[in-house]
Each structure stands twice: as C-alpha cells, then as structure tokens.
Amino acid sequence: MIRVCLIFLLLLSFFGFSQQTDYVDFKEAKVEISINSKEKQVEGHIEYTFEILKDVDSIYLDAQSIKLDSMQLLEIRPHIHTEYIGIRYQNNSKQIIVYNNFKREQIFELHMNYSALPKKALYFIEKDEGNQIWTQGQGKYTSNWLPSIDDMNDKIEFDLSITYDKDYEIVANGNLTDKKTNEFTTTWRYDMEKPMSSYLVALTIGKYNKKVENSKSGIPLEMFYYPEDSLKFEPTYRYTKRMFDFLEEEIGVSYPWQNYKMVPVKDFLYAGMENTSLNIYSDAFVVDSIAFVDKNFVNINAHELAHQWFGDLVTETSGTHHWLQEGFATYYALLAEKDIFGEDYYYWRLYEYAQELLEQDKAGQSTSLLDPKSSSTTFYKKGAWVLHMLREKVGDEAFKEAVKNYLLKHQFKNVKTDDFMGEVEKASGQDLSEFVKVWLNNKAFMYDKAMKSLKKSTFIQEYLMVDCEVETSKCYEYLSSWISDEAKSKIIFQNHELIKKEAFINPLKVRQAIAQSLSDITTDLKADYESLLNDKSYITIEAALFNLWRNFPEEKTKYLNQVKDIDGFNDKNIRTLWLTLALITEDYEPENKKSYFDELTDYTSSKYGYEVRQNAFQYLNQIKACNDACKENLKQAGKHHNWRFKKFAKTLLK
What is the C-alpha separation between 555 and 331, in angstroms, rounded? Predict the structure, then answer.
C-alpha cells in the first residue's frame, strides 16, 4: 500500500511539470451507458483508443467518485494481432491511473465497466410534465459521470450509446445512427466524426417533438420543443436558419459538425451551453410572440452557435485565453443580430457593453483580458469590444482572412491568443503589439477610445446628445419628435415629470419606459396609462398592473379582472403578481382566496422551474404568508443545483 501511494505521489509530481497530452493522445471513445433515474445512477462500458507519444510508465483518466467494476488493456498491433496486457491500476476517487511500461508509438485500447452516482455534471430533474436528464460539462467536469479527460487540450472523438425508458427522447453529440427498442427501453446510438474536448460531451433526455430545417449548405438544424409548446415553436426558433447561414458566410469556414441541435431543458444552470453540435439551453427562452419582444432566444442561439467554431472547433489551451471563446461568441452573435435587427441595434448593444465595462472599472474590479480569473463581463463584453476595435484597425478584408486562417490552421486543436493575433498581423501586415498592450493586457477598459468608435454611428450621436439631466428645455418636445425609441426612453427615465398625454403616442419600448418609470399616476393620465395593460409586452403589463392597482384603489377589481388570465413569461411574472394582489385586495373574490393562496404556495414547490419558484417565494415573503409548506419548499430550494437560486433561498431563510 505504501509503495502504491509513493507511485501515485511520484505521478502527481511528474505530471505537475508536464501535461499528460505530451505523453499520450486519447483518440477515440466508444461509450455505452444506461441511466437509472430512480437511483440516479449511470452504468457504463467504455472503450478508449490511445497512442503513446513518449515513453511513460503510467496514464490516467479523470474519474470523480466513480466505481470501477473491471478494466482491460489491449495493445493494438496493426496487421499482426491484438494482445491483452496484464494490467495494474489504481482508482483514487479522483483519477483512474493505469501503470504499464508504455513505449512511444504503441497504440492501445482501454476497456472498462463502471458505475457512477454523479453529484454534478449530470442532473436529474423531476417535474409533473415528465422527468428530464441533462448534462453540463464546462465548469462541472464530465468525469463525474464518464471517466474522461478534464484537460481540454486532449480532444477525443466520442461515440455515445445511451439506454433509457422508451417513452423518452435522447439527444447527444453527433448524428443519430440507430435506435433499438425492447419492452421497456430504447438504446440511442450517436456517432461523432471529429474530436472534441471532454467538457463538450453532452446528452439530454426528455419528452420532445422536433422540426428539422436544412441550412443553405445542407446542415440539418434540429429544433426540439416540448409537445405542449407547439405554438411557441416559431417565436422561439425565429431567425435560426438565417443566423446559421449568415455565420457560415461571415466566418468563412464551413460549419465543422454533422448537425446543429437545439434542446430546451428545465432548471438549467446557465442561459445556454455550446456542447459540440448540441446547444442545451434554458427553457426560460421558449417564448410566445409577446414574450419575444422583451426576452427571446435569438442572442443565446447565435452565441452558442458561434461557439461551434470558437470554442468547439478551436479550444483555448487554458483560462488565460478564455476570451478566444467567449469574446468571439459574443462578437459574432452580435454580428448575426446586426444582420437581423440592423446597424443601430449593433451599436446600441456595444454601447450597453461599454457602460457595463465602465461601471466595472469604477468599482475597481477590472482585470486584463488575459487574466484567467477575469469576470464574465470582461471575457464576454470586453472580448467583443476588442474584436470590434481590431476589425476597425485592420479592416474587414484582413480581419476576415485572419479569422479564416486561424480556424483552418488550428481546427480540432487548442489555441492561445498569440495564435490568433499572429494571423491578424500576417493578414494585415501590421505590428499589433501596441494594440495587444492597450486592449488585452491593460486592466482598464479604453472607454474614451470605445466612445470615439461608437460616435461613428449617428444613432449613438443622437442618443448622447439627448440629456435631460443637463439640458431640459427641449426634452418635452423630443418625446414627440423623430428621435430613436432609446433616446426617448432615456428622457423618460431621467425625468418622468415630462410625461404628458402625447408621450403615450409612441412605440412599445417607449411606452414600456413610461410603465416602469411613472409610479405616481395623475388623474389626467389615468386613461392613457390604463391603455398600457393592452400592450404586447409582459414587462409593460406587469408594471402597469401594479402601478394602477396602487394608485387607484377604487378600481382594483377592474384591473385584476382585466389581466386575470395572463401568465406572462415562463417565470409567470404576471400570474404570481396577480395572485399576490388578489390575495391582499379586500373583498376581491373572497370565495377564491384559499385557491389563490394554494396556487401561489404550490408555485414554490419543485414541480416548477426555479424562476417560477423564486417569484412565488418573494411575493409570499413580502406579504408575510410563507406557511409551513412554503418554508419546507424554501429549505429544499437551499439545496438546489442552480447556485443562484440556492443562494437566493439561503438568503431568504436567514
């Protein structure tokens, strides 16, 4: 035992000075798993093929608390024979270490049977509409349910075969090649053709329908949706094909995978995740036509799609170069939206990013873009700004040539910032060392330079010109003028006293600003403000309902009846507010008070998505009506896998 521990310590010391990828290349993984949702268990068989690059006496797979049932090592000798090798290994609950006298150019297969009870990375979701199972590898490590390589520098071709209840759909990386159903289960076989980092291995299990549309280049775009959400399909997946076709042309490199699948899931950890060929995203972005105005899937879809090139095809070597994934995905998603919504939208979003980065600077929280501990604001939004400024500096032609060469040269490999900047210097003929120093190495965001770039847009010039905190004489007239909705909204938020009847004769976004900013409603504006309850915006309706209910107590019943049947977004923002107001409105349907209270309390249970639960908890807490059932649900929420919701619940429990 002492000798084994000593070998393990020596191994850790050895790999501390060099990556395993210098010594071994895992090439292919044939994975067969069956999932037991009752026991929350994964049982699997894996066959890894790997090549020895340098002589070494041990190799490892990452395996977090995985039970290893059996293992075999085979040496593959082309045109001769396959030979089983006597094997010695150790499973220390973090890694499976295989000891052997491995020699350069040898090729092996490693076969293993295992089981796992994953605490993270693979999640079991239980809802009334049906169970779901989904994965999240990035930041959580696929090795919690599949012995694999956490180091993103080793890219492997994964072929997944997954067995589960026959009444459910299974979606995974790659192309579905076969389905076999027996009495109780179905086995789904997926094939990948190219390698990827292990954190991008993914699967989803749930009850879905799907529609398929081919891109201009012939790539199948598989769009999944819940059977009950057929009417939400079009607004949810609006512009998908257009964005795909745009990005292929703009990037200049063909989409590198067999298909592109989009699958919504419940209680997801993030907005979306760019698993190779499989975008798993939060069903909060499954929307109807009204919700589309304020909260849609377009940006998330474009962002995760852009990652298929920037992150999946070429992958950072380490967190130091994380902006090569998130900055690029943010920038190219913005370009795709620019193609749809126009140039003003593009500059407006850049302006919003700049303001967020400025606030980060003021808070003393800014870091270099090459700091692996940087914030998401830095990686995503500063990264996008760097690409915008770089393109301005070198020109469209050189920029696009550099991006294309960068992707083709490093496809299915890992990259550093110098790899990209080197291609830009070659394509442009410019020395970009000063640009790197100012925009990448510098902690501060170059706000003045960014604003100079933004002012090339007449839309931004106009927005900056309108400032009612400095000059108020023309602001009332601006509200009925030709200026942009963004500029008018700015005026309203700066000085809501300027709101007169004429201000309501404006497009939806301006009316939304009125609903959100004008909390004290005068009698002469009452009828105009009431019209906001008919707007096609769940944000507007929510704000208008509360403000009207508060300002005109004698007409509470009228307002409650008017929006009684509206749920709002998937988080039931309007319904939960409505229930709360109905409960505290004296004499409003007293015979239904109990059912309304029961409904609001029920929304705190795990049957619902965490966004719905959070709204219900907040309202019940505000009216001091969180009963024993609510409190028990709150305790349960304090153990939720979504860290934001868990933090919210723990804070409320204090």
Answer: 48
CA-based max dimension of the chain: 93
Q: Which CATH class is domain 506-653?
A: mainly alpha
Question: Which residue type does 67 have?
Answer: K
With vertex at residue 25, the alpha carbon angle to CA 309 and CA 67, rounded to the nearest 5 degrees, is: 100
- For every residue of 191-257, DSSP letters joined together read E-SS-EEGGG--EEEE--EEEEEE-TTS-EEEEEE-GGGGGGHHHHSTTHHHHHHHHHHHH-S---S
Tell me how far apart the alpha carbons of residues 641 and 135 are, in angstroms, rounded to a whole number: 12
3-state SS, residue 173: coil
CATH fold for domain 314-459: Neutral Protease; domain 2 (1.10.390)
- The CATH code of domain 2-207 reads 2.60.40.1730
- The Cα–Cα gap between 618 and 632 comes to 15
- Mean pLDDT for back-to-back runs of 10 residues, the chain (654 residues): 43 54 97 97 98 97 96 86 82 96 96 97 90 96 97 98 98 98 97 98 98 99 98 99 99 99 98 98 98 98 99 98 99 99 98 98 97 98 99 99 99 99 99 98 98 97 88 80 93 91 94 96 97 98 99 98 98 99 97 98 97 98 97 97 96 92
> What tokens does 314 get?
């070429």
